[in-house]
Amino acid sequence: MAVTKYTEEHEWVRVEGDVATVGITQYAQEQLGDVVFVEVPAVGRKVAKGEACAVVESVKAASDIYAPVAGEIVEGNAALADSPGDVNAEPTGKGWFFKLKLADKAEVDGLMDEAAYEAFVKSLG
Amino acid sequence: MRYLPLTDADRREMLSVIGAKSVDDLFKDVPASARLGAKIGGLPDHQGELEVERAFQAFAAKNVSPGTAPFFIGAGAYRHHVPSTVDYMIQRGEFLTSYTPYQPEITQGTLQYLFEFQTQVTLLTGMEVANASMYDGSTGTTEAVLMANRITRRHKALISGGLHPQYRSIIETTAKWEGFKAVLSKADAEGLEDLIASVDKDTSCVVVQNPSFFGHVRDFTKLAEACHAAGALLIVVVTEVVSLGLLMPPGEMGADIVVCEGQSIGNGLGFGGPYVGLFATRDKYMRQMPGRLVGETVDADGKRGFVLTLSTREQHIRREKATSNICTNAGLCALAFTVHPTLLGEAGFTRLAELNHAKASQLADKVSAISGVKLLNDSFFNEFTVKLPKPAAPVVEALAAKGILGGLPVSRLIPNDPSVENLLLLAATETATDMGMDPLVAALKEVL
Amino acid sequence: MVQSLDRSQGRAGGVAASAASNHGTFTGNRALQIEEPLIFEMGQPGRCGVDLPEPPKVKDRLNGLRRAGTIGLPGLSEPQVVQHYTRLSQKNYAIDMGVYPLGSCTMKHNPRINEKVARLAGIGDLHPLQPVSTVQGALELIDRLAHWLKTLTGMPAVAMSPAAGAHGEMCGMMAIAAALEAKGERAKRKVVLAPESAHGTNPATAAALGFTVKPIPANDRGRVDLAALKAALGPDVAAIMLTNPNTCGLFESEIVEISKAVHDAGAYFYCDGANFNAIVGRVRPGDLGIDCMHINLHKTFSTPHGGGGPGAGPVVLSAALAPYAPYPWIVKDGDKWRVAEDGAKVDGTPLGRLKAFHGQMGMFTRALAYIMSHGADGLKQVAEDAVLSANYVMAALKDVMSPAFEGPCMHEALFDDSFLKDTGVSTLDFAKAMIDEGYHPMTMYFPLVVHGAMLIEPTESQAKEDLDQFIGALRSLTERAKTGTAAEEFKAAPRFSPRRRLDETLAARKPILRWRPSNHPPGSDPMKQAAE
Lengths: 125, 448, 532
Known about the structure:
The structure holds 3 protein chains of 3 kinds. Chain A is α+β, with helices and mostly antiparallel strands. Helix content of chain A is 17%, strand content 37%. Chain A contains 3 helices and 9 strands, in the order E-E-E-H-E-E-E-E-E-H-E-H. Chain B has helices spanning 8-18, 23-26, 49-61, 84-90, 93-96, 108-125, 137-152, 165-178, 221-229, 250-253, 315-318, 331-368, 392-401, 434-447; strands spanning 129-130, 156-159, 181-184, 203-209, 233-238, 257-261, 277-281, 294-298, 304-308, 374-375, 383-387, 408-409, 423-427. In chain B, the strands form 3 sheets. In chain B, strands 1-7-6-5-4-2-3 form a 7-stranded mixed β-sheet, sandwiched between helices. In chain B, strand 10 and strand 11 form a beta hairpin. By secondary structure, chain C is an alpha/beta fold. Chain C is built from 12 helices and 13 strands. In chain C, the strands form 3 sheets. Chain C has a 7-stranded mixed β-sheet with strand order 1-7-6-5-4-2-3, sandwiched between helices. Chain C starts with 77 loop residues before the first helix and ends in a 23-residue tail after the last helix. In chain C, 59% of the residues are buried. Chains in contact: A-B, A-C, B-C. Chain A binds chain C through residues 9-11, 24, 28, 31-34, 36-37, 57-66, 84-85, and chain C through 1-7, 9-11, 504-505, 508-509.
């Protein structure tokens, strides 16, 4: 059973076994507007928690995506190169960014669950 | 004052709407210690157009206009004929007095010519994508090195001894303060330099110039291959863009980034600026480019239009993570550059290049026939280097005293290097005539 | 994560069809608005817009590297070229056409005498590397402008070569790095402080030089919070980068205290001079304790904006930074002028070179012509009229729009978008509606610290009656927006411009950055193909 967690950087992290899939939330895609370009990390790259490892661009904004947990990149979503609009259409589905193999599964426990994230978004007004 | 429309009555009325007694009230946030009561002293007051023009004519009278003397100086800035249409177009107020096209609905004129400009640059350089211009070739070259460093994540640039000495100096300066390594090869007057063996796994890029500062025409295909094998980029610099009408474009040699000084097309000498930098690369490096880009799109009615695009690379959005701190480009000089090749077309551009090459060939034959003068170039486009039997700097001064602007003593740009002390760099463009070449040859014979 | 600057996407889809499109013409043209193809769609082999002589026959000395294929340039005759670019020009708004209130850009009148003198034989046609004995007047001209810039700013030195404002910033910050290095402090002072409202070039420049940029907060009056600045200053701080008047159009009233605190902490004060037009001739930045400031000649000193350049960004330097000024500069020996170029023996330790040749001479000439036309008396009046005009616009609009801060502004008036709350009209929509009224919009969404910012800089160049009409148009637009039923109408704006809103998303997702036959197949009508 997959568990989905959230970060204050508006990323979601879905954990299945020791692999986490990472993307941005509905709220984040709304804030960005039409996504025009996504750069995903190379397979094999080891990232520390909080390290900038992907970039998402809309017409008027560019943002770094930070690794929510430490690990090794096992896949980047290559389809986003041709259809960055997937991030807007299905941010938690086809619009995922990358998958990483967790370095420390316990790190995931420190992230927000859905209820906590919803409350967090609400607090932003 | 002719530029200021407000009358004293206007000013009084405006102050009353604002609710201020005097304009001084509006400056109340300026600390009292810095508020000047009167105008700044020691400077003249306003003048009419006639007086201003006279003052500038007086400056001009103290210079020797190239149009009045046999003229053979190049070295990164070339004297070409600029068609009247070009200068007329850039003086149209709709181009001259508009700004960066932030509002595409009312700046399609600027955006479309920049799109045409970008296309012309890719055609001339043989590259896939070009930006909407840089300040000039010299600063553009340094931006290319920084771009290569970003792409390769390496920090060592190899700089050819055939690159313009001032371009080398700018890279060196930037390397020092921005923190990367620039390895500068020694001046390559003979055109024999081979950098292939120097390319290694730490090299981010190799920067060469074609034709080189000394005029040599080189094939960099093998160097490009060596760079790519080592994971480095090849940057080819062209300071005489007219040469691209005749020469194999750098893109065909395998260059990854091409930077040109575009002054030769459409832009006068202007004592060194403003000029226009051309910057082209491969599609895959598009998002690592500095500077503005214009792209095609459609408007709400479905009509084709143009916009600034991919601007998230730029400083106003990416701030400290931008690809460059550049904001302004060389818009108006880019327009001059665009109009000129449009007038020339394929046939005219090629013929212009042929003319340059032919004039320089004639000059090279005439000068190298002088006893004691040795031509260092087997190949050249419109500029070449000769070795004189004595230091070149005083020779050039002596020529100037005879009313001849007879080339550049290499020692002016490469000081304190005895190996270049006797070298003279000579250029001939389509503007050169026999009536100019013969006095140069005669004077050189006298002076030597 | 999200640092969205402009919540309004540049997306064209969904906009109501233009009523105007119901009145089609055979050509697609609309009177003076001519639909114009690209040159690549117009050329014919056999046409040429120049007549060049047959080249003399010579032996080819190109090392066997002759271009194999064609370049691909189209052939057009001279009248076609004139018509093409004239038609394009008519799709541009320009200062020559009216109010161009683009805040922080100082879109003032560009006098034509500037153009004339820049083209004089003996000035416009000089080669940068002619023997110095043949360019004495040119060197004197540069020095004359340098003298004006130093005197107007109250600073002892100026580096003339930077090509534009951002290049000047680079020069100034390199000089600061050089001064720190000379004191052996470069390794420990790695932080540059800049307000969140700074121009994007400031953090970009500092970061390029390896500095870490730390934001300093503003107070509720839109100025730097002095206490917060003092708290941020420490032995790790290299410099502060501050625009004054600042990007909110306000004078930093505690600037003397700021510069003292910065210097007491052993750091330097970089002043971004983008807004010098507000104070030229009236306040000398040198009296405020700054160490360096770039001057955008295309803003304060009227050199043409030219569709985004060329600019020129000379940097004035304090005595502390002057020894590090880059090559080249002009020196007078007796009655002769010369140029100090690379390798020349000089006092001080130049930081290197930033640009080939001598800087943007063509801009120096124009700026000096402007300065001499105004004189010291006229320049003071420039600042006063610029500030008066901005305050007048502010006063005449403050009851219907929402000024971001209280009190007088300097040369630009800043509004936020609270007056548009609940109208369904965004800052972007409001700006686009201004286009239909015949104006270039103000600067939008900058500075970032103000929500939906609208920054209006009328400059000193507009007559009062033109300002009044501009004010009337904005008041009318606010009235329409506040009916609460006009959102659709605003979102459909502009309707009367050469193009309506353009699809920026499409442009960025599938970048087409050059003409190619494959993008534009022969026979297709470029004006209509996209509509299908």
